[in-house]
Queue: 2 jobs
Job 1
Amino acid sequence: MSNKIILTIAPTGNVPTREMNPNVPLTPQEIAAQIYECWKEGAAVAHIHTRDKHGVPTSDVEVNREVLAELDKYPDCDIIRQFSTGGRAGKNYMERGQMLCLAPEMASLATGSSNFPSRGNFNDPETISYLAGEMRQYKIKPEIEVFDTAMLWSAFKLVEKGEIFAPLHINLVMGMNGSQPASEKGLLYLYDYLPKDCTWGVTIIGKEHVKLSVIAMALGGHVRVGLEDNIYHVKGVLSTNLGLLRRMKQIALAIGREPATPAVARQMLGLVTKAITTG
């Protein structure tokens, strides 16, 4: 097991509002600025959601282009840019994947349907195939999002069909109300079925965030943190992206896991080095 850990920051998401937590970044400038601060603290990957001028989730290519342009204003920041193709930010798969033409190094790919607290997380085979095809076209590494256990086996089928390629990078999302719960047994069950050649990590939502993240780290996994997933640092205390990242970094160091730089993370993830243009 490598002692290097890939820390991902998810600063915005589709759900948090300023009313829920005033520290949530919404504009391209705010999103880029917080990603930069988290990169300086040890984040290797930025999981990027965008909002329109009204704060509504959007996959609009121009808004995403603006986020990349804002990140380019920090020329020393080599953080890996990962776009979300999640279902809350588009009515259909073409809307959800429209910004993939900007060719980020990574993008999320949910490999099945599940439930969110108040709506479905709809990813039918046509949607998955379209988004996977766009990622192949633009040489984007998918991050396989596993909200429910069946999504893991769906990803294996996609590899068999040649729609995505091994070795996979898998993100086990646990604690979403309506999808798989955040539990030790659930995490260990999924861990037992992970391909030996994959890289993997966890996104733990809710009160089990720290405990299960630590278990994942002890098993060799990587961890995502951020206000997208947890707006509280502890019960009743609102957090910040930087605060969540610093806590996980400190825990990782305490158990002998050193945060990977973006350059090292690229090697671990098997990314193709390429320039990301915003023009």
Job 2
Amino acid sequence: MADDLKDNYAGAFDGALGFGKRPALLIVDVVVAYLTPGSPLCDPAFQTALESNERLVAAARAVGMPVIFTNVVYQPGGADGGLFYAKVPALKAFQRGSEMGAFPDTLQPAEADTIVSKQYASAFFGTSLASTLSAQRIDTLLITGFSTSGCVRASALDALQHGFVPFVVADACGDRHPAPHQANLFDLQAKYAEVVSEARALDLIGAARSAG
């Protein structure tokens, strides 16, 4: 089946995007709601992805690459979340002041990092992210986070549509089930992004040091 799928897409969806000269690391919604047993968003798969994010952040900071964190914050009652908040009951975990919306102890933003708070799936929708990236002349994003089929996918698609080359780091993304995780990585690679391993991402970060 996998070979049939690749054959079906061959010739139509097998282009490639090049890695740019001014990359940044975008970490989408890596917060404790996905890592705390008993949370409706938690799954063990997220822990492995968290560890990958920790390594990527350390590497990015070592070369001076900009690091951007996103989180989700709603006013009480979620009116600022609109239909997205109404559709997904688990988003109640992100009302302002909830501990579930905090960054994990092992992956805290540093003073030099940027934090973008959002209410919808994409890190770009209704936020200043595109302007922030443009002001820094960023041309490429290494994208990680939670969840692959939700906010990571939406953010990668919007990155492309805003003119930033999206490189999605598969090992640093997580989802509640392998099926949507793999299906969305496949579709992102085919149509909207470059999907790379953590090892490849670390090589690209290292190359950014050399280029700098």
